[in-house]
Amino acid sequence: MDKPVIIQKRSLKLEMDPGTYFWCACGKSKDQPFCDGSHKGTKFMPEEVVIEEKQIFPWCMCRYSDKGARCDNKHRSEERRV
Ligand code: FES
């Protein structure tokens, strides 16, 4: 598995309580957007995300964001066209 699985070509905005979360970087988790351990055996590792205060967080679901777990709208760019 060289490339992550693209779940959808837009972010997933969720209201998040303060806490520590592990974003799925491989796209194989059945508990999107969070890691469920399905990355084992791949080169991917989850990203730890610490949320300090309650907020709407735009989780990256295409896995090409330059900001890791946070969507940066890369899924809209021409070069990626994911
Ligand atoms: Fe995808 Fe853990 S299941 S990074």
Briefly summarize what is shown.
The chain has strands at 12-16, 19-23, 47-51, 55-59. With 82 residues, it is mainly beta.
Q: How would you describe this structure to a colleague?
A:
With 82 residues, the chain is mainly β. The strands form two sheets. It has a two-stranded antiparallel ribbon. Strands 2-3 form a two-stranded antiparallel sheet. The radius of gyration is 12 Å and the shape is globular. The mean pLDDT is 93. It binds FE2/S2 (inorganic) cluster.
Features:
single chain, 82 residues, binds FE2/S2 (inorganic) cluster, mainly beta, two-stranded antiparallel sheet, 0% helix
* Overall mean pLDDT: 93
What is the N-to-C succession of helices and strands? EEEE
Low-confidence sequence ranges: none
Query: Helical segment tally?
Result: 0
Task: Give the neighbour order of strands across the main sheet.
Answer: 1-4
Q: Which shape, going by the Cα principal axes? A: globular
State the secondary-structure class. Answer: mainly beta
Q: Hetero groups bound? A: FE2/S2 (inorganic) cluster
As a percent range, the share of strand residues is: 15-25%
Termini separation (Å)?
Answer: 17 Å
Largest sheet: 2 strands, antiparallel
- For this structure, the quaternary state is single chain
Instruction: Evaluate the radius of gyration.
Output: 12 Å
Q: Topology of this protein?
A:
Layout (H helix, E strand, L loop, with lengths): L11 E5 L2 E5 L23 E5 L3 E5 L23
Antiparallel strand pairs: 1-4, 2-3
FE2/S2 (inorganic) cluster binds next to loops.
